[in-house]
Fold this sequence. Notes:
The protein has 4 helices and no strands. It is an all-alpha fold.
Amino acid sequence: MPRYGAWFLSSFAANLLAGYLAGMLEAVERGAVFHFLGGQADFFLILVVISLAGRGAAARDRGPVVPSDPRPGIDVWVIFHRDPVK
């Protein structure tokens, strides 16, 4: 049950951040926030940096990826390609 609260809280935070970023568009275009590439490119650079930071945080929290089967997908291949003679 608590995961639904986390879902709504994360949606709220994402929409709030999107609203703040949309409100900052003109300031970023003028270079008042920071100037790296200039104009709207700086605004979209913010979105790229935020998505990469989120990806890094998710990868850090997940831990190492270890497949349970050394040959993934073999079960599906065996199910659909059985010998009909048996």
